[in-house]
Amino acid sequence: MKTYIFDPISNEALAYAQSHLDAVCSDSPEIDNYAEVEAVIVRTFKMTPAIIDQMPKLKIIAKHGVGVDNIDIPYAKSKGIRVTNTPDANMNSVAELAIGFAFSCVRRITQSQFAVLNGIEKNSPMYLSGYELSGKTLGLIGLGKIGISVGEKLRDAFSMKVIVYDPFATTEHCNSIGFTKIENLDELCSKGDIISISVPLTEKTKNMITSHELSLMKETAVLINTSRGGIVNEDDLYVALKNNKIFGAALDVFVQEPIQKDHPLLTCENFIATPHNGANTADALIRMGVGAVDEIVRLKNGEDPLSKL
Fold it and tell me: Above 80 in pLDDT, residue 101?
């Protein structure tokens, strides 16, 4: 099955693809000829209607990852093209990054590193004082698999109370995993010590966190976003951080990616930025790559997909 791999994938996944499919890699000159392609694997490559129309034999778009905002799914489906993703493959890696952000912010680890590099005159300066996670309240915006993983890890390891805002999560489901459902976002923002966002970018979640929500947060609150850029209004967050309205924030995702070095947020000492790195672990890359290839192999063998979009 002629398969184009538009973005780099792990060596393990590439070996699997080459042993089961007629795979063409992103660095091959052949990849510019779309006429014969039957399957594609994409990470960030955009599958627009214009691109899809150049692939008359295309049967499947396999996303290497979870978010599918780089794929025009309705258009693909209108053409009878199967679209898959790997929803569980990067869950643990993204959750661990969110937890790392929480530690880095509350203990001012990144800020302390810069202080040392710039020359520090005494140990334990008060301006680098942080606070403990133990016994604090974690506010989850979104109760998908990543949100649950973040909540369970911080609850079990640090006895954090976990509250949840997610209109699609039932009270019963939250109770069953030891979390407390909060009925509105304002209440969660006012109660959370750590607020972690795990929702897709949609018209309803775009600018979900603005100056209003930030104004409700505690001065000791930390905001974390490992989902998609655009959910947090970056201009409003900059104002809140500069004026110390919240303790800190850490974002792995931005409206414009990769984040540019002159972005105003990078002037805030209480801010941490990473370049959409949540799923960028050797473990997750293998799982995502192999999972994406496997969906194409399943189609080739006449089997149903493991993921449903």
Answer: yes
